[in-house]
Amino acid sequence: MKKGRWIIILLTFIIALTGCTKKETSGIALERYSATYLSLFDTVTSIVGYAESEEEFNTITKQIHDEMLTYHRLYDIYNTYDGIVNLKNVNDNAGIAPVEVDQRIIDLILFSKEIYKESNHKVNIALGSVLALWHEAREDGLYDPLNAYLPDMDELIAGSKHCDLDKVIVDDDNNTVFFEDPNIRLDVGAIAKGYATQKAIENIDISLLISVGGNVASTKSKPDGSPWVVGLQDTQKSEGNYKQKVILDKGAVVTSGDYQRYYEVDGVQYHHIIDPDTLMPAQYWKAVSVIVTDSGVADGLSTALFLMNQEDGQRLLDKYNGVALWTDKDGNEYQSNGFDSVIKN
Ligand code: ADP
Ligand code: MG
């Protein structure tokens, strides 16, 4: 195993405005504000944006926060909450009888079915029975590293018999979900964060950039018409050394990587994105960043591209009009068609 682990994380940064942060648009002075939350999707959320007043900015970011928190609770597979039926309730009960759910759960499942189909079943929110085994082994291994273990392959194979997303029956008219196979378990970790972000910022009309644990999305360009700049950073180097900087008007940039969540067994790292064909962590790439207009699509595609070769990934990008940067395990970078158009020179 290579020493001196090479880690990339996605960091957002805003080109420093010299002197004053005020911007003039149609005679109205806009000022730059920022907010940070720790309550959403078990990660750090930061928002920067331009508003006429701090009050206006706070009102808008509170609205985004509150909506994201509702999505977070609806899509949570580990906890239940008073007064709402969420995906944990669905996992616990939908194998017994149809469960009536919020429209936002129906919509996420339908969107995930599309990504499932387009990714050739590589991104599969019905992989929960397999992912739960990895999740448990990782949590145990992080808590007690000396006794870290791999999930049992026989159990993984047994779990993989219950991952057919076509057996998750969505009744859009009656707002119900039913599992034809009672052992199916949903895990929406590959898509939910980006999808919720998209929904929460869709109708926001000020110019802002949001990062939800490195999943970045923007509503539109900055008030002076210039794009946001998002850095893809190599953290082995000192801060400010970005391996690439990309520009974003209205759109999203999402990275999937093997450095994000992993644990070690006998000195070998095992990350959290599981190849449904091997039931083991995917081995194609170190990281893949996808840039596309819709943040939900960006999240789905970054996981998808991480699970396939460059040629298949390019095909998927073409379908969704996206661009990407792949980084292999040796640190070599490969740009998709059109990636040069988003590079900040
Ligand atoms: P992150 O959520 O860390 O930003 P991803 O968007 O790539 O990264 O999603 C990874 C999460 O998706 C995992 O933690 C797990 O919950 C889930 N997952 C892992 N492998 C798959 C897969 N093949 N299909 C669908 N979901 C997966
Ligand atoms: Mg994803």
Structure report:
With 345 residues, this protein is of the alpha+beta class. It has helices at 54-74, 87-93, 103-118, 128-143, 153-160, 192-201, 295-306, 310-320, and strands at 8-12, 23-25, 28-40, 43-51, 99-100, 168-171, 176-179, 208-212, 215-218, 228-234, 242-248, 251-257, 262-265, 268-271, 274-275, 280-281, 287-292, 323-327, 333-335. It has a domain at 87-179: T-fold (Orthogonal Bundle). The protein has eight helices and 19 strands. Helix 1 runs antiparallel to helix 6, helix 4 runs antiparallel to helix 5 and helix 6 runs antiparallel to helix 7 (295-306). Residues 1-20 have low confidence and may be disordered. Adenosine-5'-diphosphate (ADP) is lined by residues 122-125, 127, 131, 187, 189-190, 193, 256, 260-261, 272-274, 276, 299, 302-303, 307.
- What is the average of the pLDDT values? 91
Amino-to-carboxy terminus distance? 35 Å
CATH superfamily of the domain at 87-179: ApbE-like superfamily
Bound molecules: adenosine-5'-diphosphate, magnesium ion
Helix-strand blueprint:
Blueprint: E1 8-12, E2 23-25, E3 28-40, E4 43-51, H1 54-74, H2 87-93, E5 99-100, H3 103-118, H4 128-143, H5 153-160, E6 168-171, E7 176-179, H6 192-201, E8 208-212, E9 215-218, E10 228-234, E11 242-248, E12 251-257, E13 262-265, E14 268-271, E15 274-275, E16 280-281, E17 287-292, H7 295-306, H8 310-320, E18 323-327, E19 333-335
Antiparallel strand pairs: 1-10, 2-3, 3-4, 4-8, 5-7, 6-7, 8-9, 9-12, 10-11, 12-17, 13-14, 15-16, 17-18, 18-19
Helix pairs in contact: 1-6, 4-5, 6-7, 7-8
Bound molecules: adenosine-5'-diphosphate and magnesium ion (MG).
